[in-house]
Amino acid sequence: MAKEDRINLETDPDQPRIYRIRVKGHLGREWTDWFEGLTVTPQEDGDTVLAGSVPDQAALHGLLKKVRDLGLPLVSVCPVRPENEEGHKE
Fold first, then answer.
1. pTM above 0.70, yes or no
2. Ranges of H-type helices in 1-90
3. Residue 44 CA, distance from chain mean position
4. Given CA atoms 58, 42, 28, 41 in this order, what sign does their dihedral have?
5. Rounded to the nearest 10 degrees, how much is the dihedral formed by the CA atoms of 70, 72, 76, 79?
6. Which helix (H) or strand (E) holds 51?
7. Are residues 13 and 58 in contact, defined by beta-carbon separation less than 8 angstroms?
8. pLDDT confidence band for 88 (50 / 70 / 90)
9. 17-41: b or e for each residue (b if 16 or more CB lie within 10 Å)?
């Protein structure tokens, strides 16, 4: 693949990315379907982490709207490099 044909995930916001969204409050794993297949992991500190692939920026905004609609305070939204999901360091 030529260098100019590669997709730069850092500059192309409409390419699928993996995100880790942290909210205040506990959600059970049964919320996975409502959050479009993201994993829902309650944390010991009372927060919940939603993690997984998000197809584009519009989908990310849709997920954040769902967080807002639940009234959960948003703690952070972090893009994650795919190698970090497998346990490798950045």
1. yes
2. 57-70, 82-85
3. 19
4. positive
5. -20
6. strand 47-54
7. no
8. very low
9. bbbbbbbeeebeeeeeeebeebebe
Interatomic CA distance for residues 90 and 71, integer angstroms: 33
By the 10 Å C-beta count (0-12 exposed, 13-18 middle, 19+ buried), 61 is classed as exposed
CB-CB contact of 19 with 79 (8 Å): yes
Rounded to whole angstroms, the Cα distance separating 6 from 29 reads: 36
pLDDT digits (tens, 9 = 90+) for 17-51: 999 999 999 998 889 889 988 999 999 999 999 99
Structure tokens at 43: 């944390």
Q: Which candidate, 79, 75, 26, places its Cα nearest to that of 48?
A: 26
